[in-house]
UniProtKB/TrEMBL annotation:
Pathway as given in its UniProt record: Membrane lipid metabolism; glycerophospholipid metabolism
GO cellular component: cytosol
Gene this chain is encoded by: gpsA
The protein, known as: Glycerol-3-phosphate dehydrogenase [NAD(P)+]
Lineage: Bacteria, Pseudomonadati, Pseudomonadota, Gammaproteobacteria, Oceanospirillales
EC class (word): oxidoreductase
Residues at which NAD(+) binds: G12, G13, G14, S15, F16, G17, A142, R257
EC numbers, comma separated: 1.1.1.94
Length: 363
């Protein structure tokens, strides 16, 4: 007997949702995509193009778009939610009456909800109470995925069925899907790296060199993992695709929207001008504010996030902030090898010895 075709539902008609819908269809699934824009829905169904978000790429004709959740969700084995963090909760609440507990619900969104500092999979879990919840994250620029450039991602879930089903639905000869059980770390990695992509874009616009970019990315990794570990994530996750992998691509590519916002700021545009010119979501703008506030409230050392916050929201010139950051604490390289506190203690002891020697000289 022929195996039944998998049904996949995608919520969101943006660039990443569309790219993933097309992969699932390439893999033979029956794919339905929900979006709120009727004109774009019609264009996807008739021309197999998403002219607003991915105009240069053909979508697999097996993807059927609809503005009705009731036509998209019932019967889908896998539901991918690709909606920016600001609207994610609202859309999940609209979807809720059409969902059932056997479905696998996966967020693709790299952002944080302000209310309760919630990650998207936590919203999926809370709004549905269902057991098969996961997150996709990794170095996945949507237009490169749509272009079938060789790419890898991570499916993170503590539920083995979720991991396996997503690997089967999306894994193919141009898209590899690695598994993780650290859902929180993978999801946090995706959200946090957006902050540093803005900083990297800014540094590039200011004419800073490759040494600077490398320093920025590596110290960003230290800062991201410090924050994530303070919140309960596994630091090893940050060595993977959803940590260092995504940091590399987003801090290096003008295809990244966060990088482009940073670049525009470095060219002297205001935050509003930079965001308006982009016309799409750059999650890092909101994330930097939320993370900086949380870091301050919990006493977590995050000089890069604090510096970027000062530039974005307090009008400090980016060049001046870079100068101040270079005068900051010279801390441990890898804190999981040499603790930051040990470096600080050694400095204090040396300072004490120097003061003592000076005092002795006067006595
Ligand atoms: N693009 C990328 O390269 C990647 C993106 N991601 C993540 O995926 C998430 C989604 O991204 P992406 O597809 O790129 O986003 P886009 O900005 O390309 O598109 C956003 C989509 O969400 C829809 N949307 C926004 N607000 C609402 C709402 N209130 N109700 C219904 N629909 C809404 C938009 O509809 P409308 O057009 O009608 O406004 C649009 O279809 C992002 O948070 C991002 O972090 C992850 C990996 C790669
Ligand atoms: O997350 C991404 C690539 O992995 C996309 O980054 P942007 O949201 O900055 O475009």
């Amino acid at each position: 007997m022929a195996e039944e075709r998998m049904r996949v539902a995608v919520l969101g008609g943006g660039s990443f949702g569309t790219a993933l819908a097309s992969i699932a269809a390439d893999n033979g699934a029956e794919v339905r995509q929900w979006l709120r824009d009727p004109a774009l829905t019609e264009q996807i169904n008739r021309e197999h193009i998403n002219g607003r978000y991915l105009p240069d790429y053909a979508i697999n004709p097996a993807v059927v778009a609809s503005t009705e959740m009731a036509e998209v969700l019932p019967g889908a084995g896998l539901v991918l939610v690709a909606i920016p963090s600001k609207a994610f909760g609202d859309v999940v609440r609209q979807a809720r009456p059409h969902l059932t507990p056997d479905q696998i619900l996966v967020s693709t969104t790299k952002g944080i909800q302000e209310e309760g500092f919630k990650l998207m999979s936590q919203i999926l879990e809370e709004e549905t109470g269902f057991p098969h919840i996961g997150v996709i994250s990794g170095p996945n620029l949507a237009s490169e995925v749509a272009d079938k450039q060789l790419t890898a991602t991570v499916i993170a879930s503590d539920d083995p069925e979720t991991r396996t089903r997503v690997q089967t639905a999306l894994g193919c000869d141009y898209f590899r899907v690695y598994a993780s059980n650290d859902r929180f770390g993978v999801e946090l990695g995706g959200a946090l790296k957006n902050i540093y992509a803005i900083a990297a874009g800014m540094a590039a616009a200011l004419g800073m060199g490759e040494n600077t970019r490398s320093m920025l990315m590596t110290r960003a990794l230290a800062e991201m993992s410090r924050f994530a570990v303070s919140q309960g994530a596994n630091p090893m996750t940050f060595l993977g695709l959803a940590g260092v992998g995504d940091l590399i691509v987003t801090c290096s590519s003008r295809l990244s929207r966060n990088y482009r916002v940073g670049y525009a700021l470095g060219e002297g545009k205001s935050l509003d001008e930079a965001v308006d010119a982009l016309g799409q979501v750059a999650e890092g703008v909101n994330t930097v504010r939320l993370v900086r506030d949380k870091a301050r409230a919990e006493g977590i050392y995050m000089p890069l996030a604090e510096g970027l916050y000062q530039v974005l929201f307090r009008g400090v010139p980016a060049k001046e902030m870079a100068r101040l950051l270079m005068l900051g604490e010279q801390s441990s390289d890898v804190e999981f090898v040499l603790a930051r506190e040990d470096v600080q203690r050694a400095h204090r002891e040396q300072e004490g010895a120097t003061q003592g020697a000076k005092g002795g000289g006067h006595g």
